[in-house]
Amino acid sequence: MNSDYYYEHTFTRRGKQDVVVQPRDAEIIVRVAKNRFIDSQDIQRLTGASYRPLLRRLKLLRDVGALIEPRSTRLRRTTNGTKPMVYGLGNVGADYLSKVGVPRTNVDWTKLAREYTDFKMDHTLLQTKVMVDFEMSCRKYPRYEFFDEWALNRRLGLRRELPISTPFKWQTRLPHVAAPVGVVPDRTFAISDTQEPGFFYFFVEADRGKVVQKSTTQPLRRTVTRKHVAYHRSREVTKKLFGIGAYRVLWVALGAKRAENMRTMTRPHIGDGQGSPMFLYESHANIAGDDILTAEWTNARDERTRLVD
């Protein structure tokens, strides 16, 4: 990882030995901050650290308040000790990052982590798993370079902020809807092809099957359908705001049936009624792991494709 976020510092612990920040600590804090919440197994995948020493270091960072273990996941881990520990950014960690150009903001990160609900936590962890898979896949296939939101902020000249205040959000107009509709992707990333000219932008939507399709004759009031139409009509807006004129939207579902349901449910309302190839769907179980770049997805027209085709 880039060493821009490391500087000499000591975390104090009341009644115990102080903790001298190591470069690996800075990397861990940044990894947690970028993803909001991430489990110990994914931290190990990203850092390449040995697991037991890593757990000891995570405990130290938690003890000084740089990281925090959310209450909801702590209770579940107590019930079932096989689950990996989950970490969020603590206020001490946010203070540390503020010295290297990451705006502190007024967020009480420790309080946020403690009050995070189970549903939001599971949703965030699914997003994180997908992003970790993509980064690890780009390491496996070095032809491709991975750009997370912070890296994109730099590349596009946007503000580099903590992920709770992502710059990748906008409003667009929809037919038969009076007010502008807001669009906030779950995650945003890009992949660069280092052998052939190509820079590919992706918005990620992690769907846990909790979004309910309301019984209504107005399709644009349906949550998932409305978001599809908003993405489809946003290309001029994203080009103006971010310089992103072409992108694909990855819908990651918990199961194949849910992914299929989203394709068939939204297809009649996009373009000519046949859907758009900009939307790709798959269950997380079918694409999880370091081969996510070469895994097959199904687009809105029921065509099988790969992201790097």
How would you describe this structure in keywords?
Arc Repressor Mutant, subunit A, single chain, seven-stranded mixed sheet, alpha+beta, 39% helix, 309 residues, 18% strand, three-stranded antiparallel sheet
What would you say this structure looks like, in words?
The protein has 309 residues and is α+β, with helices and mostly antiparallel strands. The protein folds into two domains: 3-116, Arc Repressor Mutant, subunit A; 121-306, no CATH class. Helices cover 39% and strands 18% of the residues. It contains twelve helices and 14 strands. The strands form four sheets. The protein has a seven-stranded mixed β-sheet. Strands 3-5-4 form a three-stranded antiparallel β-sheet. A hairpin with a 4-residue loop joins strand 13 (296-299) and strand 14 (304-306). The longest helix has 23 residues, at 118-140. The radius of gyration is 20 Å and the shape is globular. The relative contact order is 0.10.
